[in-house]
Amino acid sequence: MLKLLTPLRILLIFCLFIPYKSFPQETNIEEKITNLVSKMTLKEKVGQLSQFAATMNPSLEMIKSGDVGSILSIKDVNSINRFQKTAVEQSRLGIPLIFGYDVIHGYKTTFPVPLASASSWDTSLIKESARIAAMEASLEGIKWTFAPMVDICRDPRWGRIVEGAGEDPFLGSAIGGALVRGFQGDSLNDLLSLAACSKHYVAYGAAEAGREYNTTDISERTLREIYLPPHNAAVDAGAATVMSAFNSLNGIPASANYYTLTEILRNEWGFNGFVVSDWNSVGQLVNHCVAADKIEAAFKGFTAGVDMDMIGDTVEGDIYPLNLPLLVEEGKIPVSRIDESVRRILRIKFKLGLFDHPYTDTVKIKSLMFSQEKRDSTALKLAEESIVLMKNNSGILPLSKELKSIAVIGPLSDDKANLLGPWAVMTESGRVISVLNGINEKFSSTIKINYAKGCDIEGDDTSGFGEAVQAAVNSEVVIFVAGESSSMSGEAGSRTNLNLPGVQELLLKRIYSTGKPVVLVLMNGRPLTINWENENINAILECWFLGDQSGKAIANILTGDYNPSGKLTITFPRSVGQIPIYYNHLNTGRPAIEPGRYISKYLDSPNSPLFPFGFGLSYTTFKFENLNIQKQKQGKQDINVVSVQITNSGTVPGTEIAQLYLHKISSNVSRPVKELKGFRRIFLNPGETKKVYFSITPDLLESYNSDMIKTIEPGKYDVMIGGSSEDVVNGSFEIVN
Ligand code: BGC
Fold first, then answer.
1. Using the 8-state DSSP alphabet, how is residue 614 labeled?
2. How far does residue 93's CA lie from ligand 1's centre (Å)?
3. Which end of the chain is more exposed for a tag (fewer CB within 10 A), N or C?
4. CB of 278 closer than 6 angstroms to any ligand 1 atom
5. How far, in whole angstroms, is CA 484 from its chain's centroid?
């Protein structure tokens, strides 16, 4: 008998006695999926692949029949629980629905827009903001967010630039990964976690001429080096889902692109979540002229790799539900391929714990959430860190403690809606702090505040100018709050003129002519062309859209209670004619380093931007010196360590963001003049010096060679470290074979 007990048999007997649940979770889920899929009809399978919008009023009957896999944009927990109850208790197989929502920069507590929070370069605080957003959305029954948006963008005409982290793939990857980790927490199964969605896959941010939904045409190198890395980072961070974009990429729409959706995403990166289309982007394959009709659109989108169709058709949702069954019946799509996509969706539903706890337990979730106080303080801190001080002539900021009067002027001064930015539909308006509120709270007991709106954001009405000029005349200093409305950026928010809209600049000129010192507080979703302002106004604060704590954060900066530390993650052009303009460009054969005509330059404008990537001032000054490179020569797989000394050479404490850039001097292909490869926030008291270290690991040295193979090339590398892409200390090292 004993002889019969071979090790294998012993293991088998042992396994029989292990309780079902203590098998590794993954295996357990796969078995459950197999079991469930084996019971599903084709119609039920296609139901799982179909997402409906709340506005389409999916009926309870459809849910009962298993025709709906997901619903997006329902805003209240009772409706969500009602729909879920129908799916779980009245559909044949009881498969729960997954409820999605655009939780982009907060849910009820509204954080700065992504382009703003990126300026903090503070990935742990950004992660915390996503965690809080996930908690608040979970409380409403939402289990899936369509975020992070990781589109790199080099064109501020494109309105959706506001939704991403800016122009750099390294920073964009770090922030994208942090957001995924924040939304998803340690486990998707956590009651406070949301499934994340890396969007918009891919290269949507390269829309030609910055025009929304437009074509993108970029090289394989640019795709792989600039646009893909943040998606790859989001997938590596565990993003449960990916959204296929609206744009066509090199002639093939992103939502019908087998190369990007299957070869790269699945085969190269090993993504095992599911892909959802953007809003009817599969149906729009007909408009892209790659599908003759909806059935061909369904075929192309599905076989390229779009598992779930968002909306299907803006009216009836009929792209996947009507056409996939026909395509299976005609033998064009095997059922096994449908099963594969169904499995991907069920896998995420299982991982989210939707089968175990389909309903939202608000009491339990509330007990686990951070307090409102903690959520507000995170929002305030992130808002403060997001502000970029662009100019501060003769130290006008922080405002003198001796002031007796301040004018607060401009259309955004007392505004509580626009300062939230796009995608802020759940904010409780009573909690929003406008700039005027913030200033009143901070100063009004000691200082006279003279407020005048002056003009609207858009339009040509100048009737308020007189009152505004009078407010300026009656005050010692003017805070002028100007910029864009929240709908001027975001989806379908492309612009060709990037000056301050309406008559705001005209009003600013009138105020300037009073001779009073002016602080320009900007709120906008993209870089603006603010040449006159930069030449004439004493101080400029780029505040983007800072969310519900805007006024408090701005007041803290004005008084110096918080010393600005934000750095731009996007280049500010001087004019629209310079676009696309970005720091990590190639050198060209005739770089404009010496005067002359036949060099790469404009006749009517400098090449340089108005404000470069990585730029941002402080109320103190920082000195970078003593760049040290551990190894002057190294092997390809070695880790090199570079360090620099940073000193706070001013008089107040402050935080500097040290940025590491590398440049390969001579290479198999042209390499950018510099590429960000590291960054660190460093707090320093006046007179304090700290040594900051960066490890240069082999992955930071890899680039695609002329055969598009990732390699580390031998030769000399420039090392640059500084507080801006344009202000660095230099060194170099060499890689030997
Ligand atoms: C946007 C997506 C968004 C989706 C759902 C689309 O129009 O492009 O970013 O997630 O709508 O609201």
1. T
2. 30
3. N
4. yes
5. 19
As a whole number of Å, the CA-based R_g of the chain is 27
Task: Enumerate the β-bridge partners of residue 679.
Answer: 659
Q: Quick: pLDDT tens for 611-638.
A: 999 999 999 999 999 999 999 999 999 9
Please give the structure tokens belonging to residue 437: 């509120």
- Asked whether 199 lines ligand 1 (CB < 6 A), one says yes
Q: Residue 653 class from Cβ within 10 Å (0-12 exposed, 13-18 middle, 19+ buried)?
A: middle
Residue to mutate (ligand 1; options 99, 145, 491; most atoms within 8 A of CB): 491
Helix pair angle (465-473, 504-512), 10° resolution: 30
Single pTM value for the model = 0.95
The pairs formed by 19-28 with CB atoms below 8 angstroms and a separation of 24 or more are none
Please tell me the predicted confidence (pLDDT) of residue 314: 67
Q: Which tokens in the block code for residue 502?
A: 């309406």
> Three-state DSSP class for 642?
strand
Kindly list the catalytic residues. Answer: 278
Task: For ligand 1, say whether the CB of 491 is within 6 Å of any of its atoms.
Answer: yes
Other CB atoms within 10 Å distance of the CB of residue 366: 10
Residue whose CA lies nearest to ligand 1 atom number 10: 146
Pocket lining: 279 vs ligand 1, CB cutoff 6 Å: yes
- Ranges of residues in the chain with a pLDDT under 70 are 1-27, 314-316
Q: Whole-angstrom Cα distance, residue 636 to residue 638?
A: 6
pLDDT at position 428, please?
86
The HSE-up count of residue 629 (CA atoms within 13 Å, CB side) is 19
Q: What six digits make up the tokens of 454? A: 């002056």
331: which 2 tokens? 């033998």
Residue ranges of the alpha helices (H) in 387-502? 435-443, 465-473
Q: How far is the CA of 114 from the centre of ligand 1 (A)?
A: 15
Query: 391 CB contacts (<8 Å, ≥6 apart)?
Result: 534, 537, 538, 539, 540, 617
Q: Tokens representing 525? A: 């979703």
The single-letter DSSP state of residue 255 is G
DSSP state, residue 370:
P
Stated length of the chain: 737
Residue located nearest, by CA, to atom 2 of ligand 1 = 278
Q: Can you give the pLDDT at residue 19?
A: 34
Rounded distance between C-alpha atoms, residue 556 and residue 33, angstroms: 53
